[in-house]
Amino acid sequence: MKYKIAIIGFGTVGQGFAEILAEKGDWLKERYGLDFDVVAISDPVKGAVYKEKGLELKKTLSLITQGFSLDKYSGGIKGWDSERTITDTNSNVIVEVSPTNIETGEPGITHIKSALSNKKHIITTNKGPVALAYRELAKLAYENEVFFRFEGTVISGTPALNLGLEALAGIRIREIKGILNGTTNYILTEMEKGKTYEEVLQEAQRLGYAEAKPDADVEGWDALAKVLILANVVMGGNLKPQDVERKGITGISVQDIQEAKSDNKRYKLIGRVWRENGQIKASAKPERLGVEDFLAQVNGVLNVLTFVTDELKEVTIVGPGAGRRETGFSLLTDLLNIHRLLEKSSSTIDPSRIVTC
Amino acid sequence: MKYKIAIIGFGTVGQGFAEILAEKGDWLKERYGLDFDVVAISDPVKGAVYKEKGLELKKTLSLITQGFSLDKYSGGIKGWDSERTITDTNSNVIVEVSPTNIETGEPGITHIKSALSNKKHIITTNKGPVALAYRELAKLAYENEVFFRFEGTVISGTPALNLGLEALAGIRIREIKGILNGTTNYILTEMEKGKTYEEVLQEAQRLGYAEAKPDADVEGWDALAKVLILANVVMGGNLKPQDVERKGITGISVQDIQEAKSDNKRYKLIGRVWRENGQIKASAKPERLGVEDFLAQVNGVLNVLTFVTDELKEVTIVGPGAGRRETGFSLLTDLLNIHRLLEKSSSTIDPSRIVTC
User: Fold this and answer.
1) Which of A311, A325, A328 lies nearest to residue B329, judging by beta carbons?
2) Exposed e or buried b per residue across A348-357, where buried means at least 16 C-beta atoms within 10 angstroms of its C-beta
3) Which residues, in sequence order, are CB contacts of A18 under 8 Å at separation 6+?
4) What pLDDT, in 10s, does the model give residues B208-247?
5) ipTM of the prediction
6) Looking at domain B169-320, what is its CATH homologous superfamily?
7) Contact B170 A138 (CB under 8 A)
8) By the 8 A CB rule, do B304 and B298 touch?
9) Which of A158, A302, B135, B296 is the most buried (most CB within 10 A)?
10) CATH says A3-157+324-356 is which class?
């Protein structure tokens, strides 16, 4: 099967994904037998172009880099909005990377419903729809016999969801806990050196780790969304945002951090999901951990997730939690995982491909 | 498809696997739609029994616990050796858990070839065959259109191979490094407290972390086998044991460890695979790491593996590296991964199963 991809949203993540496809196309075909074209890109600001036989990705990226709209692409149909791009193109895989809205999930939810109803696979890094509407969307995917994958919604391309759902298949997960937001982890790490919250926030904004309006990160909304995804997708819960105890890091002073330090403790914004009396519970809030705790040893923008299980006790994964390429890469992982299932390859790896990796 | 399993070898790992199946059977059916019977068990010491319609696992385990042979099982055919059990039973999945031999790979290699030639899936935790004959066995699996999986050969059930091969699909791995042997990590961790090698070895033997004849662990043979598997399976190499630099920990004195400590360093037995001038290189030997190094912070019997990659920089997984249930569990993971591919399920998860997890 040839994957005909339409990319909805062409911001940082969409561009990162397009870069990876442009660079790795030949290798992906040789190594995994992955055959694809990006046939359409639609972004309300950066323009839209559709070409049935496939776009030249390098050309689309170069237009954006030079500050032009995709409408300047030579050839193809221009100006189709997201809805028309999802429904009327010859695409069979929709990559939904429109901006995240954790309150409404829109426009992501609408895009995803439209794709699934049209029997097109969905790959997304958009946290809103998965955090707010997972069950409904998973049901729609199942009914339409297409895949709905979203590895990049938790810890970017670091395969947290693949680990919990597939690599660890057969395990019973008692609890999931971790550092799910790099911005706040960077701020807390730097504050331990004696800097104030305001100083470090400015530094983080200069380095691109924090947004100009940093509330989604520092008030714990981003961690909350990821906790909801872990609770509802991996642990089988059905939680809504108001079911999760959420607290940001803005109330933590340098003095609090120094006091913790002298107690051999360290503040971390911890996302946590656990079972209690047959129910799934979750929180996203600062916790004082012992410095010898594994989670306390993950500093800076790194993220970490620990699965507390029946058969393996604790299994922990550490990796980057954000970034243009890191998040863009998660979309490729999802595509390759769909491909492996559709390909029905009978062996772990075709040995003729071993030597080329 | 109903999986009809024959277990070849009924030592610790085989029993751990049988325990898990006995306890989780109903849940596995409900959660994953996994339908299975264990139809045969064959062990040269513990006896052999074959029952076409499936054995009662609890009865087989109870016989072993009471010190009886499987020949005492009421009903079924007794006394078939491994070869006959592989070829002549109605099994379609062979679980190969006979003793590991890192020099010859036998009897594992013969068992695996026999199963694959008879178009039966192979799941194994036996390091010898994978370390010594991976390419040949993978080719045979491919030609016979069956699966050959061996998650438990590296870091027991902690999904190191699934992570490198599947969860991280699409990544280019530049280097793999880690602590692959829990026995030596325990010994080195305890020696840092000032105890001698001999003291700690005895302690480890008492705790069941080290064998009476500890050479496979302390001379680095076990780590070497795992390094070969990572090099040849995950990195596409074609290395033989003599291509890998191997050194054990028996030459490390308490004084060496204290000297390292005063330099802010820590000895770890590190398995390492990397690319150099277009070739795959590997080593398994003690290294002095800075104490701030993530690998240096993993102590005791825990194992850790870091993938150094193009898109995600470093991704690290930490988990148990040995144990009856931990290693037995890896076989279930492999079975469920085969099941997912054969089932061709069209959605990430059948939502009707979500609530039951």
Assistant:
1) A311
2) bbbbeebeeb
3) A7, A10, A38, A41, A57, A60, A61, A328
4) 889 999 999 999 999 999 999 999 999 999 999 999 999 9
5) 0.94
6) Dihydrodipicolinate Reductase; domain 2 (3.30.360.10)
7) no
8) yes
9) A158
10) alpha beta
